[in-house]
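Shapes recur. One chain:

:::
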Amino acid sequence: MSILWLVYLNRTIPQLEIDAVSEFLFHLLTGDVDKLPTQTLVQKFWSQFHNEQKQAAKYVTCLRTHQLTEVECYRVVRVYCGSRFGQETPERLEQCHRLLANEINATTVGVDHKTIRSFENYHSCFKSYRRLVRNCTDVLRKVITDRRLRATKVVRATMDSMGPLLRALPTLRVIHLVRDPRAVALSRIRFDDSGRGIYTLHIPKSESHIVAEASLYCHHVTANIRSGLALQREFPDRILTLRYEDVVANPEQRFRDIYKLLDESVPKATLEEMQKLAQEGRASNLSTKWQSKVTYDESITIARQCADFFSLLNISAVDW
């Protein structure tokens, strides 16, 4: 059985990428690692989050043995494509997507020689790493296929990518995770530009960045929720929508809901660990911190601009 956890990003996803995400996740969850992009196989997160991926320890060890934990092939194309999705126009991003996927040649799209060379170096870089990572792919394949229950948390997937997966994988379950937009906005504005919705950086200083961030979040998440509701009608009992605040408030019930979705019993050790993490979350007021930081006027404005978000989840913005 496979599980997907969905969180959100702030941009409109082209159909080309929606389909690519479905295909990528299919290969990942079925253990067909030879069809995964090299970028996935040598992603720095394997090493950076190795403590959270203990089952993949042998794979991480193999990557380290072959010095594949600090791959920097992206650097050469960031000047042209940007470091974040919103830093360039949708047209430029679409072009970059096709250039990075080798669907078109840089020499045919009218870019300068330096940029052409950057994309050539990008592809050459990953091609060389592909040869090396073959020493480790059998290890990763075994890590995946040896386990009956496989789970992954994805940031750049939307519910639109889940339809093909739900049809192709009868045992797939999707956990749809959302959070109060005011808490999301407060979290984002505390980071630098890389953690914000790029289009909210250009609003007048007299306007609230918290309102802008929350509104942008709601715009995308609401569309995702609508897609999820349609899929729930097509695939009953295979999609679960969870609110972060509910998990923190009542972790035992929410995790029982998750394991009910999986038709599995709740492991005692797992439940105890989740209760511990939820207690830490309550102690740090992660779910309610926004209430003391967001002004009354900001909260009311967000509630109004995010009315569809709260309505679709059948909750009151005031109660939450």
Remarks:
- The chain has a mean pLDDT of 85.
- DSSP finds 16 helices and four strands in the chain.
- The beta strands are 2-6, 150-154, 172-178, 239-243.
